[in-house]
Amino acid sequence: MSMYQRDFMEGTRGTQAVDWEERIDVKRMRRERKERALERLQETELGAMLLVSDPNIRYVTGLAMTGGSGADHYTVLTEEGDVIHWDTADHASNQRFNCPWLQDIRYACPGLGNVPRASGRDSARDFLKAKMADTVATALEEYGVDDEVLGIDVGNAGLVSAFEDRGIEVDTGTVPKVMEDARKVKTRDEIECLRQVAAICEAGFQRITETARPGASETDLWGAAAEELWKQGAFVGGGYVTSGPNTWPKHQANTTDRMIRPGDLVYADFYNIGYLGYRSCYYRTFSMGEPTQAQKDAYEIARDNLYDVLERIEPGATTDEICQGFPDMEGEHADFYDADEHWQMTTNHWGHGLGLQLYEVPLIWRGLSPEHPIEIEEGMTMAVETQEPAENQGVRVEEMVVVRENGVEILSQWPVEEITRIDY
Questions:
Q1: Which of 198, 250, 337, 359 is deepest in the core (most CB within 10 A)?
Q2: What is the DSSP letter of 236?
Q3: Among 62, 138, 75, 149, which residue's Cα sits nearest to residue 105?
Q4: Which residues form the Creatinase N-terminal domain (predicted)?
């Protein structure tokens, strides 16, 4: 397998600001992301684009989008590179003080999402959409793009109608493609954010090895891991720990209060753990004591399937070719699920892009890729995951990678050759 050799300045170097070495350059990252989005906007017929999706807003503005009441924050990027951002009163006032790279921050009206849904009246919902459209229309006029087409990254019919009532022509198909194209290949600093979040996940895995013992619960392990992740500077937006029979098939409640017992397999899925917004997806399997031969055999199958796929990933390869490294229907244990087609096996074996969202371009999956292939590009980042049953339990394993000119660089570094054994 071709492996990328890191340059001297690449690699995890810490989360603090220092003046004595180069680390993640957040100013450069903000600038380069905005430039990418602007370049692709300028290739279209749009005069401006309205961003309502949190990851798109963060990509262009650098603001910490950690959720909210729906469309109580939104951003316009004009073809001249002007950025206008609307947010709640508390957030907007904070941003005016702390975000000097943004020159025009205004108060938002939540025309979509939880606020209109909770209002209980159609008249209230109409008012909120109209007022949201007014705030944007006013800015478009101020910046001289009100007579050009406005692209929007959501296709809400009511919002579109509100803009059209104000004489603004709206396009809902172009902006998602613009932002997908801008975001699918990562800058050097985005890659370093993903490398850093992988390192933080490894600190969480270590806490699991220190906490797991017979009598401890899954919630004990996940609580200890989550504490470590937060302490290391992560945003914990997801993740779980399961054990024993909850590892196959994956338990619907994810982490439960089940007690860990000798001979259990334990696996941790650290997904949606964020560092500067960049999200992890990183599985590892642990055994309480020496794993059985069946467990070792299952893990070897899952690991080999994973690395078969990784060996196929390189610039110019297409996802229909790569997905053949994943198991066929027999290898998917389709009979266990009473399944007939690969599309029914969502999440069991696939590779998915990572970035400011858990699922970005590309997706590598037997349920989709054979008929709908896309080409892999250098600089794409992704997580590739596999699983396998072991008697009445199961194993899972996953790597985070970045596509380089000669294959993949593996960003995740927790040992993968065999199940991590926990002695107690």
A1: 198
A2: E
A3: 75
A4: 33-153
CATH code of residue 304: 3.90.230.10
Is the Cβ–Cβ distance between 391 and 292 less than 8 Å?
yes
- Cβ within 8 Å of residue 370, ≥6 positions away: 320, 323
> In terms of residue numbers, what domain contains 74?
26-182
Any domain includes 412: yes
pTM score, whole prediction: 0.96
Please name which of 53, 319, 315 lies closest in space to residue 179, comparing C-alpha atoms.
53
How far is the C-alpha of 403 from the C-alpha of 405, rounded, in Å? Answer: 7
Owner of token pair 């009246």: 121
What are the φ and ψ backbone dihedral angles of 160, each rounded to 5 degrees? Answer: -60, -45
Give yes or no: residues 177 and 244 share one domain.
no
Could you tell me how far CA 361 lies from the centroid of its own chain? 10
Domain boundary among 164, 182, 200: 182
- Cβ(91)–Cβ(73) below 8 Å: yes
